[in-house]
Amino acid sequence: MSSSSAPSASSPSSAGLAYASAAFAWWGLFPLYFRLVSTVPAAQVLSHRVVWCLLFLCVLLSARRQWRWLGEVVRQPRVLAAFAASALLIGANWLLYIWAVLAGHVLEASLGYFITPLVNVLLGMTLLHERLRRAQWIALAFAAAGVVWLTLQAGRPPWIALGLAVTFGAYGLLRKVAVLGALEGLTLETMLLLPIAGVR
């Protein structure tokens, strides 16, 4: 096989890095947007997110003709229950994050997502029996030291940050063992949150 026709081993990881960087940059801009709509209650902001996200997902799945999975899922109560739990977790996480930004706790909200990897590691080791390499332990120690330092600087327990980290970590655990792909799972979660969003 010639070098021109051989697949590039680095292209998938490069694309993944680009997507991740774009996602984190976009997420980092959210506080600026939320401050522009600071007169809108956090629950109402979340409701709009659910409604418009579901509309976008429905258009996307319809364009891809990717709805077969839904009929199979509705006949599996355990799968529905698992996604109902993950939907409530991510909904609580979003609501807490939006409220924290609107209330002026942007730094503590950011700390929550800095703590999240530590929660992920804890859940992975205790529930999924994963093991860390030496370099990973060192990285974990540095991250934990950073969290302790920021907490001492704040002078009080970071309850908002811990709430964000626990809800997002538990959500990540449920999605790790989920039977649906990312797009289908997000659609199902958003569908399950829609009745709650409609109350607003």
Your description of this structure?
By secondary structure, this protein is mainly α. 80% of the residues lie in helices and 0% in strands. The protein has 8 helices and no strands. Mean pLDDT is 87; it is low at 1-10.
Write the layout of secondary structure elements.
Layout: H1 11-36, H2 42-63, H3 68-73, H4 77-102, H5 106-127, H6 134-154, H7 159-176, H8 182-199
Helix pairs in contact: 2-4, 2-8, 4-7, 4-8, 5-6, 5-7
Structural class: mainly alpha
Q: Tally the helices: what do you get?
A: 8
Helix percent band: over 70%
Task: Say how many strands there are.
Answer: 0
Oligomerization category of the chains in this entry:
single chain
